Amino acid sequence: MRVIVIDGESKSLEVAEIGAQADMARLIGHDCVISDEIDDKDAVYFDEECFIRGSTGKFQIDKLAPISGIAVVAGIAVGGQPTEVTASPDLLQERIKFL
C-alpha cells in the first residue's frame, strides 16, 4: 500500500510502498505505534513515546499535537489494518509545520 513518510529531522516527505502494519513500525523505527486522524480518510501513525525517547525533528499537522521523529500517513485503519493513503504529498506538505 502507498503511504507518506514524514521525517521531522530532515523536514521531508516521501512516498513509500509497504505491505503490512509491521512495515510501518519498521519505517517509524519503533514498535509502539499509535495513530491520530488527520481527516475523515487518513491518519498519522507515529511512535507513542517519541518525546520520552528524546527523538528530534518535531513537526505538527494542522492543529494536532506536535510529533517528534518519523511518522507515516496512511488511510484510516479498517479491521485493524491501515489502508492506502488518500492525501497527496503536495497537499499534505501544505498542512505540515516543521518546528
Question: What's the number of extended β-strand segments?
Answer: 9
Oligomeric composition of the shown chains:
single chain
What does the main sheet amount to?
A: 6 strands, antiparallel
How many domains? The number is 1
For the CA atoms, what is the radius of gyration? 12 Å
Order of helices and strands: EEHEEEEEEHE
Q: Classify the beta-strand content into a percent band.
A: 35-45%
Helix vs. strand class? alpha+beta
The low-confidence runs, each spanning 5 or more residues with pLDDT under 50, are none
Helix content: 10-25%
What does this structure look like?
This protein is α+β, with helices and mostly antiparallel strands and 99 residues long. 15% of the residues lie in helices and 44% in strands. It has helices at residues 21-28, 89-95, and strands at residues 2-7, 12-17, 33-37, 42-47, 58-61, 67-68, 70-78, 81-83, 96-98. A hairpin with a 2-residue loop joins strand 7 (70-78) and strand 8 (81-83). The radius of gyration is 12 Å and the shape is globular. The model has no long low-confidence stretch (mean pLDDT 92).
